[in-house]
Amino acid sequence: MPRKLYIAGNWKMNTSLAECAALTEGLVERLGDVADVDLAIAPPFVYLQAVGRQVQGSRIALGAQNMFYEDNGAYTGETSAAMLKDVGCCFVILGHSERRHVIGETDELINRKVLKALADGLTVILAVGELLEQRQAGQTMDVVRRQVQVGLEGVGVAEMAGVTLAYEPVWAIGTGETASPAQAQDVHAMIRTLVGDLYDAETAAATRIQYGGSVKPSNAAELLALDDVDGALVGGASLKAEDFAGIVQAGRDVP
Fold first, then answer.
1. Does residue 22 form part of some domain?
2. DSSP tag of 133
3. What is the C-alpha to C-alpha distance for residues 181 and 224, in angstroms, rounded to an integer?
4. What confidence category does residue 178 fall into, taking pLDDT thresholds of 50, 70 and 90?
5. What is the CATH number of the domain that holds 102?
6. Is 171 a residue whose pLDDT tops 90?
7. How much is the mean pLDDT over the chain?
8. 1 within a domain of the structure (yes/no)
9. Which position among 96, 98, 130, 188 bears the catalytic label?
10. From the candidates 98, 105, 130, 168, which is the catalytic residue?
11. How far apart are CA 31 and CA 24, in angstroms?
12. Quick check: is 98 catalytic?
């Protein structure tokens, strides 16, 4: 059974409340009834509830860009899975390169978040990817393999139904650079093989692996046509309804 495309927009630390409302309105208008592709958006925390109200009744899922691994307590500035669910979230992005390389999150910390999110009923987009110097040193596969292995430690076969993996070469995020189709396919294929080694062939075949890294309407079709690319985690292009819709349409047009 073919894997259903999954395209998610990560708005990062962008938009004002008014911009957020206008963007969401545009997305619902263009994509609210799309059924053949799974669609999701992750606005900034402070706008989650407002966006949740706007996408209610549409087929666009609401999620968050991060979360903490405890239920509550003296964790200033953090947000729990229960809080996210309370405002309408059904998924969370974890392990994004900016959390890893700007904020300093480790593979082990990300794993704790993954386990907590799944335990509390959120689905997870687990992002992995290498730095430019790691690719230049020929370390891409080793780096990505470790991030996947540690990120999924303790996640059972049944729980993998709630996990999407996202390969994001860090050197291609927000730079305008994109991994070549061959580069993307090679890493995606390795990740799928690894999931098979960690779990089983059925789980590997069912797990969706998104590509992230300067995805835009002009390159989306080529990337989404690859055998092991099952969607996209979109950054900058998700901030314009027309661009995000163009990426979605490119995916829908893939034979």
1. yes
2. H
3. 9
4. confident
5. 3.20.20.70
6. no
7. 96
8. no
9. 96
10. 168
11. 10
12. no
